[in-house]
């Protein structure tokens, strides 16, 4: 029975070179007090000068860019196939005139990386979202011809105004028409003020554990409220981290819609597809939630046939120097065994069969 990892990242060497050439977030650099260790600084606020330089961002080693290390990690954790994606912040920060060519080069690089391991690697490509819409649409159409590409990874900023921006309609139309999945992944989190003046004392815990999932939840709720899935009924979106908190909050979201006087007056509470319909028709969820509690909410909301195993490699490595297996990966394996105790068939589907069917893998 195959195991497929659909949430696993890489920064191809050409992207790392780009980050090394930069001096503002996102960038890769060494600091005077540790000249032999490069650090990857990507998240907003992560290079705050009040943080000691050796705690800024995270150390970046070859596991971030060397595909041989990805394959070794897959072998070690019994993963047969991976659908690799560029990690955040993708190409969001590029000037408009550079984005189109950069996306082509990067997507070709990633497709070539997959070609080196036939049957083992596939990819979600990256869109040049800072370019004009015509450039984005033409890249979506070009991606259809790349053998290993199965969709696109995307953050929540869209063209700069979020995913409820109607100017994204041509992009959604092209993705729907070419039947490419959007893998919606957080990056920007919440404003750091919500973590309070002591936020820096807690490392990355609040932004990663809570900021990321809430960012995803808000982005997908805005898509829903703006009627994206009423206009694009076949647009498929895979939500990172088991949907952020959407499975848990879907009932509250729906209730707030039904009780909103402003929406009622505007005629927007009738003749709309509700969140439960979209969760079971357009949304897919990864199983990167590290506990059976969250996983069961995901299953209840979307169904075990729409849930797919993931690792988030190379993020969340074990902190012990001598650790062999990754706790983060084993937590996701254990959550699946526990949520589907007594139903091996459903567990196997989540571990691999669903991904093969949904993404059309060999
Ligand atoms: N941190 C990130 O910046 N991205 C991920 O995908 C996971 C952790
Ligand atoms: Zn991720």
From TrEMBL:
One of its GO terms (biological process) is secondary metabolic process. InterPro entries: ACMSD, Amidohydro-rel, Metal_Hydrolase. Residues 5-361 form the Amidohydrolase-related domain. It comes from the Eukaryota. Keywords: Decarboxylase, Lyase. The keyword Lyase applies. Belongs to the metallo-dependent hydrolases superfamily. This is Uracil-5-carboxylate decarboxylase.
């Amino acid at each position: 029975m195959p195991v497929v990892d659909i949430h696993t990242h890489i920064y191809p060497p050409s992207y790392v070179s780009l980050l090394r050439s930069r001096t503002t977030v996102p960038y890769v650099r060494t600091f005077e007090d540790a000249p032999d260790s490069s650090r990857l600084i990507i998240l907003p606020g992560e290079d705050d000068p009040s943080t000691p330089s050796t705690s800024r961002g995270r150390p970046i080693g070859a596991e971030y860019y060397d595909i041989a290390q990805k394959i070794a990690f897959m072998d070690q954790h019994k993963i047969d196939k991976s659908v690799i994606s560029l990690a955040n912040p993708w190409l969001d920060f590029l000037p408009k005139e550079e984005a189109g060519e950069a996306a082509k080069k990067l997507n070709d690089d990633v497709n070539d990386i997959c070609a080196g391991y036939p049957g083992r690697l596939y990819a979600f490509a990256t869109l040049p979202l800072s370019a004009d819409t015509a450039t984005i649409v033409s890249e979506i159409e070009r991606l259809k011809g790349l053998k290993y590409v199965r969709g696109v990874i995307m953050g929540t900023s869209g063209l700069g105004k979020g995913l409820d921006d109607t100017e994204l309609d041509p992009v959604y139309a092209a993705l729907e028409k070419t039947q490419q999945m959007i893998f919606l992944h957080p990056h920007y989190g919440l404003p750091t003020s919500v973590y309070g003046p002591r936020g820096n004392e807690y490392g990355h815990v609040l932004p990663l554990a809570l900021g990321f999932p809430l960012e995803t939840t808000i982005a997908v709720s805005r898509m829903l409220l703006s009627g994206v899935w009423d206009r694009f009924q076949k647009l498929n979106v895979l939500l990172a981290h088991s949907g952020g908190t959407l499975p848990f909050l879907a009932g509250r979201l729906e209730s707030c819609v039904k009780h909103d006087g402003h929406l009622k007056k505007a005629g927007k509470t009738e003749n709309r597809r509700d969140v439960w319909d979209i969760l079971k028709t357009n949304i897919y969820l990864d199983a990167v939630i590290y506990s059976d509690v969250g996983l069961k909410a995901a299953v209840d909301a979307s169904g075990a046939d729409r849930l797919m195993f993931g690792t988030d490699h190379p993020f969340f490595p074990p902190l012990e120097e001598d650790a062999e297996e990754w706790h983060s990966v084993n937590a996701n394996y254990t959550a699946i065994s526990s949520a589907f105790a007594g139903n091996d068939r459903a567990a196997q589907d989540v571990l691999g069969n669903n991904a093969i069917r949904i993404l059309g893998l060999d």
